[in-house]
Amino acid sequence: MLNFRPLLFILGLFLSMLTAFMLIPLLLAMSNGEETVGSFMLSALLTGISASLCLHNGQSKTINLNIRDMFLLTSLTWLIVSLFAAMPFTLYHGIGYTDAFFETMSGITTTGSTVLSGLDTMDHSILIWRSLLQWLGGIGFIVMAVAILPFLNVGGMRLFRTESSDWSDKAVPRTQSMAKYLFLVYITLTSICCVAYHLAGMTWFQAVNHAMTTLSTGGYSTSDSSMAAFSNSAHWVGIVFMAAGGLPLLMFVHSIQQRDVRIWNDAQVKGFLFFLTIVSCSIGFWLWQTRDIALLDALRLSSFNVVSVVTTTGYGLTDYGAWGAFSNIAFLFLMFVGSCSGSTSGGIKIFRFQIAGAIMREQLKQQCHPNGIFRERYNNRIISEDIVRSLITFVLLFMMVIVALSVILVLTGLDPMTSFTGAITAVTNVGPGLGPIIGPVGNFSTLPDVAKWALALGMLLGRLEILTVAVLFHPSFWKY
Q1: Which string of DSSP letters, residue by residue, matches 146-162?
Q2: Percent of the chain topping pLDDT 90
Q3: Assuming Cys at both sites, which of 76, 114, 193, 306 could form a disulfide with 280, CB separation 3.0 to 4.6 Å?
């Protein structure tokens, strides 16, 4: 039986936190004398009232959540927070709610697709709100990926189950402690990134915004030109901290607590960094040989764009779709990859490709030695049958959602390239697609409203690893 009162209480806590963060752009708007003061004041008031009602009606002596409660809570939290967080946008200069919700869902899922333009002259309060949404979405997903998804065994993530992934009464203090340390590491890395951006030539306001959207692998910028508006040194800073955002944050916590460098011995970390290096260098040398670009610039352009797409950050630097057919195919594949589990990025994730490779090796051995017994391992853990089933289910649903979303977008009148890459970039939470409309130098503002709602749903599905939402549509979920 679903426990609706605890769910309501927890939703109230999230809305209370959202109300508190709305005060940051409100204070900024008041200090700058911006027109958005009323927008944020009304939004904070309505969100705060809703939070109070949820907390009052959801009070209970104990909060005991079962597995069905966790599935429903995860989906409801992201959806309801997005609905309220969109209010400042829709109250700002008459932006329609469709565009406001799209921008918010893109922000809070750290996708980075945008319908807004004129960012260079936009009110600072709106710009900081966009960045805050991505920053909050990033740490929110990390906690979910570390504490909840392994518990639910979503997409084979039981491999990463720790004592913090056990939602028993004894585990709650451990979970709270883990969340505190994750937040401290997250804010420390964000602060270091901010200082580095400032030293690379950004103003403090630009540095703060880009630090939040870099560590969260979100990709929102304060300029329509995105990262192309800043210095080459800022691009290298972005490369380093986007890659840091793609690493498991819990590994940083363990390394600091235990004073070792165990993070670099993790299979997915080594695979992730090796993959970035090989692909970035390969495309960089290809650019150097086929385009009139100096070697260092070619490596900078290729590294930035590869890291941006693989970590699903989605910053725009140059239109890599104009580099030729090889580039289009390469970046189309890179959109699927993603980085490490327990990071802020989306996509399929490196560990799933590694497990698929291990399963393939096991199958090949079995073909050669039919009577043999082979058990492949990943990070010294046996790859069990339930992990394999969960992974296969995840990948199949992942592809089915992309196909279904592509069909919906085509039916709205969009061309096949925009429809297909739009579906991919939404579900993988990358941000830009390919083509002249939604490519790295494009914008989603001209898409039909139906397409925007469909893409927003795709972003939510991709952020919550598909299965977390899909299980809600199975009849057995609602049977008592």
Answers
A1: HHTHHHHTGGGGGGG--
A2: 50
A3: 306
